[in-house]
Amino acid sequence: MKNIVVAIVCFGLASLGFAQNNLPAVTIQDMKCGAFNTSQIQNNGKPIIISFWATWCKPCIAELTAIAENYEDWKSETGVKIIAISIDDARNVAKVEPFVNGKSWEYEVYCDPNGDFKRAMSVNTVPHTFLIDGQGNIVWQHNSYNPGDEDELLELTKKVSKGEKISN
Amino acid sequence: MKKIFVATLFVAFSTLLSAQADTSKTKNKKDKKVTDGTKEVNWGQIHGNFGLDAQYYFTDSLIAAPVVPEKFRMNGFLNLVYTNGNFSAGLRYEAYLPKPLLGFDTRYTGQGIPFRYASYKLGGLEATAGTFYEQFGNGLVLRAYEERSLGFDNFIDGFRAKYTPIQGITLTGLVGKQRFFWNWGPGLIKGFNADVNFTDLFPKLAEKKIRLKIGGSFVSKYQDNENITSPLDPNQILNLPLNVGTWSGRLGFGLGRFSMNAELAYKINDPNRTNNYIYKPGSAFYFSASYVQKGLGITLQAKRIENFDFRSDRNMTGQPLLMNFIPMLNKQHTYALAASVYPYAVQTNGELGMQADINFTTPKWLAHKYPTQININFSMVNALDTNLTDDLYGYRTDVFGFGRRLYMDANIEISQKISKKVKINLMGMYLFLDKNLVQGFGSTPRLINAGIVVADVQYKFLPKHTIRMELQGLITAQELEHLDDRTNGSWAMGLIEYTFSPHFFVSFMDQWNVGNPTEEYQIHYITGQVGYNHGSTRITFGYGRQRAGIICVGGVCRQVPASNGFTLSIMSSF
User: Fold this and answer.
1) First to last CA, chain A
2) Which of B253, B377, B260, B419 is nearest to A55 (CA)?
């Protein structure tokens, strides 16, 4: 028991010094079942939003639908690219591409059917949204979705696209 | 043993820190000239997440809540992952104090660090020592994963190597034992998987919009011999196979807007407790085809599963030590009455299932200001048509031998934005379930036919303030021969939720078994919740009655007993 406490304290202290700020490199799938390494995620120095979602997650769909309505404006105002990571497992993964097309979403979508990227990003539950600056640093993250959250996300994305510092 | 692992991990960790520090020093020497001297040491990154679910229980005999003498229980965990360049290491501390929450397996009682690993990448090779999760193909022959909300965790503890010689080819080999609460299961698992993506290898295919991928897996388990008497003759001891092998082949093909994916798996004789120790080989087939275009997506799926419960302990039942994953082919419902009153549970030892799913958005010329989004879904599952035999093979069946119907579900869901402030979501559904067969209460038919309707309305009355209301009804006949059942007859449900973006929510929900033939059991299950979000931290506090039932997430289900009490949940990532 003492060992465990020591271990936790060590790691806890260590984590204060250097929390995560870069994207981990994990191999997941594109919607056509081809391999995709998350180190390839980039947007030419412009901000990126990574949103973890699932076809069965109502708030996730509400969030991505709300953004989809104004995605063109978001892109022209900030240059942002949205990457939607589906955590659907083998039960639903075949439905992801038809679902995304059925919703007419224009996002880049990847599938993480066994949660490898989800674990690497320490995601507890979906929806979980990350904002990445032009240098590839995670500058903000948010768990859950309430209607209106997208307005805050847009404001933050505008700041990041201008190179301003933000924090949670 | 645990101490040794923790110690080893720390040694590896600290050695690496210094090693990495050295290399970054060298690297930074070059940078120094340019960046004017601030010497940076690459300490790597630590991140993780944390979760705590606690409940304070009250006695409530009306809903048959089990008595919790200690009153308070909690499940908690902390994940830590350290990465530095190509190295990563991690661990998870878990605690279930003084016992796991009601509904979770009590064998989790205790605390410790069951999950710890170190992993290194070198070129195309990735080696992992310790615990890991893995899935081969669709998971028919191997899937190690975690579903924390169900208390499901079957990670493998051992060694794994993944090798990608060139883009398009991935080879994986692994050896290990599975988690069994705070210990390991008795079976040793060996697995090998290969995936070849021809579209990556031959760019000409990509030019012609052809996608071709093949894959194959071999997985075997070894378990020591033991004396098990034959189910046919109590004087006969079974001659058990100590090594049980499974293999699977996969094909993925796509042309433009069409895609298909098929997997066929086979298992040699594997007498085990779930199949009553028969020697019949098992098989599993999964097929999926889809068509997509902007505004439309169609999926068709089919599967046939026979005798395919695969575990690293031949005597285990329930959730523990499952080595594979049989996907359910029905819609994963989220509205409470559709999801959890009469849920389907996958039958790993025999079922034939199919599903059709269509998603579309009404075209612009048809829609008024805002397009309508529609999902139509149909699924049906039957048991295998089996003829029992009096030998150790157990039964005979045909490939297309459809037996009794287990489940059917036809539903339509319509989402419509009415104005900038109002959105509605409507669902209608017909459901059929043979409750006895599906939930393992014997083979006497217990047929449920139900109609479910849901209206979900969201009204954003100020930019950050939203009220959402759900009204649900489940209409079904009373089961007069099951008067002791607290899930009987029709249900009504109402939910009201107020959210103040981005930080705050409060909700109130009532599930009412209005049509229960026993008047005393026409119970209101009322819960209230308040929650606060800040960044990646979410805290919710609630009070209420939880009804007994089955909760299914991602194809795995667990029985949840009724409970009454205060709940506290904290989730955070860093």
Assistant:
1) 34
2) B377
Omega cis (within 30) before B502: yes
Which of B144, B573, B539, B94 shows the shortest CA–CA distance to A118? B573
ipTM: 0.90
In sequence order, the 6+-apart residues with CB closer than 8 A to the CB of B390 are B232
What is the gyration radius of the CA atoms in chain A, in angstroms?
A: 17
Nearest by Cα to B528 from B545, B512, B542: B542
Residue A21 contacts residue A53 (beta carbons within 8 Å): no
Q: With contacts defined as CB-CB under 8 Å, which chain B residues touch A114?
A: 133-135, 139, 143, 145
Note whether B325 contacts A104, CB cutoff 8 Å. no
Chain B residues close to A10, C-beta within 8 Å = 10
> Is A19's Cβ below 8 Å from some Cβ in B?
yes
Identity of residue B358: I
Q: Which amino acid is at B439?
A: Q
Of B113, B252, B464, the CB nearest to A33: B252
Could you please report the per-residue DSSP string of B179-209?
Answer: EETTEE-SPEEEEEEEEEEHHHH-HHHHHTT
Write the CB contacts of B229 (distance below 8 Å, at least 6 apart in sequence): B235, B236, B237, B238
Please give chain A's pLDDT, 168 residues, in tens: 555 555 555 445 444 444 557 899 999 999 887 899 999 999 999 999 999 999 999 999 999 999 999 999 999 999 999 999 999 999 999 999 999 999 999 999 999 999 999 999 999 999 999 999 999 999 999 999 999 999 999 999 999 999 998 877
Q: Assess A119–B contact: CB distance below 8 Å, yes or no.
A: yes
Measured between alpha carbons, how far is B273 from B253 in angstroms, rounded to an integer?
38
CATH number given to B130-327? 2.40.160
Measured torsion, CA atoms of residues B173, B179, B180, B182, in degrees rounded to the nearest 10: 150
A interface test, pick of B40, B47, B411 with most A CB neighbours within 10 Å = B47
How far apart, in whole angstroms, are the C-alpha atoms of residue A72 and residue A85?
20
Tokens for B168, please give them.
């398009």
Phi (first) and psi of residue B488, to 5 degrees: -155, 135
pTM of the model: 0.91
- Beta carbons within 8 Å of B162's beta carbon, 6+ residues apart: B125, B126, B170, B171, B172
C-alpha dist (Å) from residue B358 to B205, B290, B363, B413, B416 = 28, 10, 15, 10, 17
Question: Is the CB of B536 less than 8 angstroms away from the CB of A125?
Answer: no
φ/ψ region of B377 (left if φ > 0, alpha if ψ in -120 to 50, else beta) reads beta
| Chain B neighbors of A101, CB-CB under 8 A | 292-297, 359
Antiparallel, parallel or unpaired: β B134-135 and B258-267: unpaired
Q: How close, in Å, is residue A153 to chain B by CA atoms?
A: 10
Give the nearest partner residue to B505 out of A7, A128, A146, using CB atoms: A146
Domains defined for chain A, CATH in brackets: 22-161 (3.40.30.10)
